[in-house]
Amino acid sequence: MSKFSTIFLAMTLSIAQMQGSEKILSSFESSNDSITDWQIVDDGVMGGLSKGKFNISGKQTLKFSGNLSLKNNGGFSSIRSKRTTMDLSEFKGIKMRVKGDGRTYKLRMESDSRYRRMAVSFQHEFKTTKEGWTEIFIPFNKLKASFRGWNLPSMKFNSKSIQRLGLIIADKKEGPFELSVDWIKAI
Questions:
Q1: Residue 8 covered by a domain
Q2: Which of 4, 13, 106, 127 has its CA 20 to 30 A from that of 148?
Q3: Nearest Cα residue to 67 out of 37, 108, 103
Q4: Domain for residue 150, yes or no?
Q5: In whole angstroms, what is the distance from residue 141 CA to residue 156 CA?
Q6: What SS3 class is residue 7?
Q7: How far is the C-alpha of 67 from the C-alpha of 49, rounded, in Å?
């Protein structure tokens, strides 16, 4: 390799490290996305009355909206990807571009961790504003493990074996909610 090639390669690697690498997980516009299928899971699975829905607009944004109810021991609505297999061990966390309603939501991920043979949820909350689009970054090392509301501090998140990604609202406030997502990336 020539001296010029070696210098060029070193400069290219430095620029890439400064810019950081990223992987689009979902931009809601392409079948090339890592995550293309979504589903709603509400507290109705345990008797609650919350109702969530989603649609993907012509502007290629996901709109997750509905009504949160605390009746019948309810209090959550979520949107989740269907089961998948992703290795995100090269990345530090998840970045999203969102437009909210001023409420608090959580990023929710599952890896290969199990509690009572069921998937453990790794979550981190983020607040939204009503003032337009915001970029949110959630490092993997900030995700907290839980199972059906119980904290599981001994469980470890495995970014090499991502099996599901989602968003959940469970802020203990009844009423309408709306969150738009432009894209989700691993950074």
A1: no
A2: 127
A3: 103
A4: yes
A5: 9
A6: helix
A7: 9
- β-pair partners for 150: 147
DSSP string, 26-55: E-SS-TTSS---EEEEEGGGGT---EEEEE
Residue at 146 is within a domain: yes
Which DSSP letter does residue 3 get? H
E-only strand ranges, 43-92: 51-56, 62-68, 77-81
The pLDDT, as a whole number, for residue 59 is: 80
Q: Chunked in runs of 10, what are the mean pLDDT values of the chain (187 residues)?
A: 44 42 90 85 93 91 97 95 94 98 97 94 96 96 92 94 97 97 97
For residue 56, the domain's CATH number is: 2.60.120.430
Count the domains in the chain: 1
* Assigned domain for 47 exists: yes
**28: which 2 tokens?**
């809601």
Whether residue 159 contacts residue 88, with contact meaning beta carbons closer than 8 Å, is answered with yes
